Amino acid sequence: MQYYVYILASGYNGTLYVGVTSDLIKRVYQHKNKLVEGFSNKYNVDKLVYYEPHQDVNEAITREKQIKKWNRTWKVRLIEKSNPEWDDLYQEII
Length: 94
Fold this sequence. Notes:
Elements: E1 3-9, E2 16-21, H1 24-32, H2 39-42, E3 47-54, H3 57-69, H4 72-82, H5 90-93
Antiparallel strand pairs: 1-2, 1-3
Protein name: GIY-YIG domain-containing protein
Domain GIY-YIG: 1-77
Organism: Candidatus Berkelbacteria bacterium RIFOXYA2_FULL_43_10
């Protein structure tokens, strides 16, 4: 099974949300359609700007926790390394 660490944004250089899932398409769909209560819904964080696959669930969870602890500058750098325009990558994965 594949697991994903992902970052959602409210827009270019906007509010960020870091999560982990085994079904990236379904999870982002839930965020986009406001089916997830809490932070991402409250702050309209629904654009997939970064994701990385992992084979091991523990590795994915560890990576998610690591990124969550990072300061904003490091997270922005991670996003912009592979997605400098902050494009919504959802269309790319469906």
